[in-house]
């Protein structure tokens, strides 16, 4: 097997056994990026020199027996909204076109401590606002399965890089589905952990109460292995939770006998593509055949998730993005008359359309006289949605449904109608509002050969149940095709 | 008959807390460092950085709340106050609006008539300070120093319960002492660790409704506050009498000119779009934590005054002055414990200390000499090792540099000469050289002996015990 075709776990094992080296793996990946990333544009920044230097250092440590972890020596791609010391971090925005952080995000540090080799920073929707990676200031990323389609978003660069085998695994961030939806569109595995499981320190915030970092991988085994490394209690993040149960690879068990799986009727209503529906229900049948107890039920309130999400996320974003003002770092307009004009011009020129739309929306819902009617009400609905999930998880171990209503749309078809684009988040955002873990994994392809994703949702801190169900399904499903047909 | 007016005043007092590190990061709060040397990603608003509450800030805020009879909010939250300004690196300030840590308190003050009055405290909240803008006229640009960014503050918001400058100052003095006694802040108005904004309106005596108020900023001393209150009261009365309206606005006091000018009116007021900060978890105050803080509350001034009266034989006036500063009270108690002479310690504090403080324009909190050295000085005078004029010289050196009096006396050779033989020789010489004074003395002019004592002390370079000189002179004459 060629190095690039290995999963992260397989590569790490091969490096440990001396069959290959971290340096060979990094070189193979960098070569592949060089060959094909002009086509896909998965990366905003590729750090070839840095990656090779890290690979050499990591290899020496592996040989000295100082690094023995499951991911030691494996090259990784990081979404460009996580700070990396000394390496450009743009959030795919013009306003951070020159921003080089002085420190590294905690999740990335955890990977580095485990011997990961950073290849570079992946493209995304600007400040993680979008569902297609088309709002990036650094060009669109194309779906490796079909370059006329979007990879999804906002972690589109990470998902596409995994699908195009331009990295062995990647980190993304998920505020309303930004890991799970691109994973679904690109035929990879993606997981959003329980809020508080992975430190947000160094993740450039979009919606602070919803943001969570998670893995994008080639299979469920890698997903568990990566999550195990990045999950940590971090005193620098007040919302970080101390957990004792982060040995996620222990849940890689091919057995769902007796597991109670609920299928919410609300997730199979109008707007769901027929082929997606069929593939997802077939996956449910597979799990039932493996011994799970599958049942339909009504998860109320899901229809309120979209307005609630866009109110809360935009409100937080409008405040989080105030620091980008042209004073301390990043883009500053060329000519200006006074302070106020400098702010106005720098921000008008530095932010893209979608970001400005959400800043305006967020500023509006927080403004005096509207706060109670919008923001406060959204917080109340958020609490009710959490309650609805609590009731569901009293009956079920896992909730099963689609990730997105359709497979990857064509490039250029989404941004024209933002409301429609927002509605595409219907199956993913309730999970963020309730702080739950969710995983997306491929369960089929549509008539055009585009991947379809299956979503499994768990109660807070129940990632292990998700991993177990996903692993069992993956084994039953068998090998999934890969996206590399267009590479010449 | 002219209309009589009443002034209604409420205060917003900002106090910089004396924590070693900032409110949301581990950077030092020490004053006076090179610009931007006490900063990190958190207090410079770097992307991706997150705040973590300094527990000491919470403890101080609760301690001040308890000392001012507030209800402590058991489930408090931090909110973001959004506004753009370069000294504010995130362009929002983390503060408390919806659930502040303390509410509904009050402190007793003494009124001019000698009565007692309660000034209500509406709330106390925690927040972060901003950085400092430095305008460089030479380069025509502005520079930002973020060393102060994230320094912890509490804001104490009073009810509009005060009616005169005297009451305002009594209230501020009360707060200052409580907070100093808690060790929560040094509360120096001049250095900005205590800042007061005055909300003031006037109304006809007997009126039920409040008048339109203004808010006055930039008040850096009690004197400035008193002057600003008088000035603003008169300005508002003049407006009303001439048929004009008081405009709700923020005004800046110029203490040099003795007048204020409008900064911004209510119409220009920004919408701060307050909302709970999602990066910070709510603050839950447990029973244990409250008990712990309660148990640590110090002896406050009133209790201390009472105890001094019982324990020490010193005048009430001395007690009032000494307990008027936490630092001075600490000095007094520690020095007294060492030398066992409360009266003498108190005399040094009330006499030379106050005199030199006034001369050098130093506040009690800035006194540098240690109680150990003060106790040593008392012991040196007690044992008559030095006389009182030498003692004053030693004290002055101690006041300046906290010198060790024993070493100082030794090094400078200031010890009193008690050797009778040596003294006798000098006195005999003085008698021989001043026959007229001797004659005057013998003719019944008792005063003449004073001159002879002075000549002897001069010849001894001050190192003699004047009483002993006097005694020996009388014998020899």
Cα-atom Rg of chain A, whole angstroms?
21 Å
CATH class designation of the domain at 3-255 and 470-477 in chain A? Alpha Beta
Termini separation of chain B (Å)?
Answer: 78 Å
Global outline of chain A: globular
The whole-number mean of residue pLDDT values of chain A reads 96
Oligomer: heterodimer
Summarize the amount of helix of chain A as a percent range: 25-40%
Biggest interface: A-B, 43 and 28 residues
Give the low-pLDDT segments of chain A.
Answer: none
Shape of chain B from CA axes?
elongated
Separation of termini of chain A?
19 Å
Q: In the CATH scheme, what's the topology name of the domain at 3-255 and 470-477 in chain A? A: Amidase signature (AS) enzymes
| Proportion of residues in β-strands of chain B | 15-25%
SS summary, helix count of chain B: 15
Counting DSSP E segments of at least 2 residues, the number of strands of chain B comes to 16
Which sheet architecture does the biggest sheet of chain A show? Answer: 11 strands, mixed
CATH architecture label name of the domain at 3-255 and 470-477 in chain A: Alpha-Beta Complex
The radius of gyration over CA of chain B amounts to 29 Å
What is the arithmetic mean of pLDDT of chain B?
Answer: 92
Record field, number of beta strands of chain A: 11
Describe this protein with a few key phrases.
heterodimer, A: 488 residues, alpha/beta, Amidase signature (AS) enzymes, eleven-stranded mixed sheet, globular, B: 477 residues, alpha+beta, Arc Repressor Mutant, subunit A, 3 domains, nine-stranded mixed sheet, three-stranded antiparallel sheet, 16 strands, 20% strand, elongated
């Amino acid at each position: 097997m060629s190095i690039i075709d290995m999963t992260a776990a397989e590569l790490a094992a091969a490096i440990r056994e001396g069959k290959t080296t971290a340096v060979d793996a990094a070189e193979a990946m960098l070569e592949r990026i060089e060959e094909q990333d002009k086509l896909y544009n998965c990366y905003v920044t590729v750090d070839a020199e840095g990656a090779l230097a890290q690979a050499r250092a990591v290899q020496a440590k592996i040989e000295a027996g100082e690094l023995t972890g499951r991911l030691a020596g494996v090259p990784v791609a990081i979404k460009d909204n996580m700070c990396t010391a000394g390496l450009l971090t743009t959030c795919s925005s013009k306003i951070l076109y020159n921003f080089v952080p002085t420190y590294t995000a905690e999740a990335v540090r955890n990977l580095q401590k485990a011997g990961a080799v950073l290849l570079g920073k992946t493209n995304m929707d600007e400040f993680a606002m979008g569902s297609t990676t088309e709002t990036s200031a650094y060009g669109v990323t194309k779906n490796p399965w079909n370059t006329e389609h979007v990879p999804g978003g906002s972690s589109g660069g990470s998902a596409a890089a995994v699908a195009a085998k331009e990295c062995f695994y990647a980190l993304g961030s998920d505020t309303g589905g930004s890991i799970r939806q691109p994973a679904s569109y690109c035929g990879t595995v993606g997981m959003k952990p329980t809020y508080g499981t992975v430190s947000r320190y160094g993740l450039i915030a979009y919606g602070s109460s919803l943001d969570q970092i998670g893995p994008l991988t080639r299979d469920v085994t890698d997903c568990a292995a990566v999550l195990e490394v990045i999950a940590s209690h971090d005193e620098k993040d007040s919302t970080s939770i101390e957990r004792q149960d982060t040995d996620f690879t222990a849940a890689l068990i091919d057995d769902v006998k007796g597991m109670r799986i609920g299928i919410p009727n609300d997730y199979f209503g109008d707007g769901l593509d027929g082929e997606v529906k069929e593939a997802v229900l077939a996956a449910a049948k597979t799990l039932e055949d493996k011994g799970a107890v599958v049942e339909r039920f009504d998860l109320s309130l899901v229809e309120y998730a979209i307005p609630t999400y866009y109110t809360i996320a935009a409100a937080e974003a409008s405040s989080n993005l105030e620091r980008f003002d042209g004073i301390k770092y990043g883009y500053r307009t060329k000519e200006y008359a006074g302070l106020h004009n400098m702010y106005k011009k720098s921000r008008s020129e530095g932010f893209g359309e979608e970001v400005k739309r959400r800043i305006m929306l967020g500023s509006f819902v927080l403004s005096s006289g509207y706060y109670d009617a919008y923001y406060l009400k959204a917080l109340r609905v958020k609490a009710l949605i959490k309650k609805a999930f609590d009731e569901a998880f009293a009956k079920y171990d896992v909730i099963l449904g689609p990730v997105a209503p359709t497979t990857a749309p064509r490039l250029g078809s989404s941004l024209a109608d933002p409301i429609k684009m927002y509605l595409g988040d219907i199956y993913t955002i309730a999970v963020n509002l309730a702080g739950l873990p969710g995983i997306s994994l491929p369960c089929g392809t549509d008539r055009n050969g585009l991947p379809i994703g299956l979503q499994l949702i768990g109660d807070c801190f129940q990632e292990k149940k998700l991993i177990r169900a996903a692993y069992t399904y993956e084994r039953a499903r068998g090998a999934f095709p890969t996206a590399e047909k267009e590479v010449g | 008959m002219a209309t009589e007016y009443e002034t209604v005043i409420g205060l917003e007092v900002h106090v910089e807390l004396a924590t070693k590190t900032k409110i949301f990061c581990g950077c030092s709060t020490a004053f006076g460092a090179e610009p931007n040397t006490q900063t990190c990603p958190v207090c410079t608003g770097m992307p991706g950085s997150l705040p973590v509450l300094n527990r000491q800030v919470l403890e101080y805020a609760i301690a001040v709340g308890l000392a001012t009879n507030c209800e402590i909010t058991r489930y408090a939250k931090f909110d973001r106050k959004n506004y753009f300004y370069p000294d504010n690196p995130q362009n929002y300030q983390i503060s408390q609006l919806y659930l502040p840590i303390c509410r509904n308190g009050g402190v007793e003050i003494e009124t001019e008539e000698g009565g007692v009055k309660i000034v209500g405290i509406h709330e106390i909240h925690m927040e972060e300070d901003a950085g400092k803008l430095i305008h460089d006229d030479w380069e025509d640009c502005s520079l930002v120093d973020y060393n102060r960014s994230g320094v912890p503050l509490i804001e104490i918001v009073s009810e509009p319960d005060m009616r005169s400058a005297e009451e305002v100052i009594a209230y501020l003095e009360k707060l200052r002492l409580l907070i100093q006694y808690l060790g929560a802040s040094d509360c120096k108005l001049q250095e900005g660790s205590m800042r007061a904004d005055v909300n003031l309106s006037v109304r006809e005596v007997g009126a039920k409704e409040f008048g339109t108020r203004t808010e006055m900023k930039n008040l850096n001393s009690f004197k400035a506050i008193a002057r600003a209150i008088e000035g603003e009261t008169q300005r508002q009365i003049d407006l009303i009498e001439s048929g004009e309206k008081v405009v709700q606005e923020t005004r800046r006091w110029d203490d040099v000119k003795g007048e204020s000018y409008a900064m911004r009116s209510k119409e220009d007021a920004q919408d701060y779009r307050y909302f709970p900060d999602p990066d910070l978890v709510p603050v839950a105050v447990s029973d244990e934590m409250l008990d712990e803080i309660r148990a640590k509350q110090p002896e406050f001034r009133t209790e201390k005054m009472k105890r001094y009266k019982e324990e020490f034989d010193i005048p009430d006036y001395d007690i009032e002055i000494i307990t008027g500063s936490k630092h001075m009270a600490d000095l007094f108690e520690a020095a007294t414990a060492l030398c066992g002479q409360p009266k003498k310690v108190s005399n040094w504090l009330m006499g030379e200390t106050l005199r030199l403080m006034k001369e050098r324009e130093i506040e009690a909190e800035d006194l540098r000499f240690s109680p150990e050295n003060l106790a040593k000085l008392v012991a040196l005078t007690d044992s008559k090792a030095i006389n009182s004029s030498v003692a004053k010289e030693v004290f002055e050196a101690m006041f300046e540099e906290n010198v060790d009096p024993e070493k100082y006396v030794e090094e400078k050779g200031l010890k009193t000469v008690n050797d009778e033989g040596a003294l006798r020789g000098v006195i005999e010489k003085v008698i021989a050289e001043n026959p007229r004074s001797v004659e005057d003395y013998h003719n019944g002019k008792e005063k003449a002996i004073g001159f002879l004592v002075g000549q002897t002390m001069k010849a001894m370079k001050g190192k003699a015990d004047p009483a002993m000189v006097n005694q020996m002179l009388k014998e020899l004459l």
